[in-house]
Amino acid sequence: MMPSPTTSEAKLSPKTLPEDHRWSLVTFKVEDKLYRVPRHGFTDFSSVFETMFSLPQADTTQEGDTDEAPIVLPSCTKVEFESLLRVMYPTAPRVRQVDLSKEHWLDVLKLATLWDMQEIQETAMTELEGLDLGQMEKIRLAKEYRVSKWLVEGLAGIVRTWGTSTTLDELGRELGWEVAARLLDLAVQFKPMKGTARLPAPTCPEQTCNKRHSLSSFPFEFKGDGTNPLQRLIGICSGCNKHFSVADIEISSAFPMGEDKLTEEIKVIFGEELKSMELHGIV
Ligand SMILES: [Zn+2]
Question: Where is the BTB domain (predicted)?
């Protein structure tokens, strides 16, 4: 997978230190195309290339020095490599915003993950997050590039929008039936309670107002937090514009688990998978 440098029997001399090579060029070969690019971007952004280029070299021509002896990169396509180059040059030593499509940012993420370019990885992730990834897509990418944050977000998103975004069949096919069943269980617990409360006409508690409201029924939605079955219904007084408590409603049986609890539960249920991602990935 990784490009391998020629490293035979070399002596380490000041000339071979990476600082001296900051602006030298290197030739890569991707598929049938040669790229002659500044080496510093690869050593600055990638620990893989930094290690490779800092290894002592033999006196003879080193791989990548000329077009005749390119470093072959078999693990990427021309399109992917060019996406990465657009992010890396000419903006070194910091990554600057460039305008790429979703597909090209995915190319960048792939290579940045492969070559351990953390800063570029994070930039690609931020860009992709702004490009409206679907929940299932987020999960797929999370697994492919070991982004545990996206796994949690994707799974939580499926639970949150249960019944509107993905069908149970799709989930079973994509994620396996055990995962689908666990998500269904969470969706049942997460589902907000909706209803209409009918109450005697409330009176504004504000002493200078005390307006009696004719309002006696209004819809409510209880999102819950999974620990407190109590919801306070708040109204706005049309006389003095202040919020006032209309009623306290206690849910006696099951009540929804809420956002924070949902994320917590997902982290517990999918703990092992998330842990293995964090060991290898970045977040
Ligand atoms: Zn009032």
Answer: 24-126
Q: For the chain, which residues make up each domain, given as ranges?
A: 14-125, 133-190+259-280, 193-255
Please give the distance, rounded to the nearest whole angstrom, from the Cα atom of residue 239 to the centre of ligand 1.
5
Which residues touch 167 (CB under 8 Å, ≥6 apart)? none
Q: Which CATH superfamily is domain 14-125 in?
A: Potassium Channel Kv1.1; Chain A (3.30.710.10)
Give the whole-angstrom CA distance, residue 259 versus residue 129: 19
Instruction: Say what the alpha-carbon torsion angle 123, 124, 128, 131 is, to the nearest 10 degrees.
Output: 70
Tokens of 56: 């002592």
- Distance (angstroms) between ligand 1 centre and the Cα of 236 equals 8
Å from CA of 221 to ligand 1 middle: 23
CA of 242 to the centre of ligand 1 (A): 6
d(CA 173, CA 179): 10
Distance 192 CA to ligand 1 centre (A): 30
CA–centroid distance, residue 214 to ligand 1 (Å) = 13
> What's the pLDDT tens digit per position in 148-177?
899 999 999 999 998 887 888 999 999 999
pLDDT score for 211: 83
Predicted TM-score (pTM) of the model is 0.64
Q: Which residues contact 70 (CB under 8 A, 6 or more apart)?
A: 27, 28, 29, 34, 63, 64
Give residue 233 CA to ligand 1 midpoint distance, Å.
16
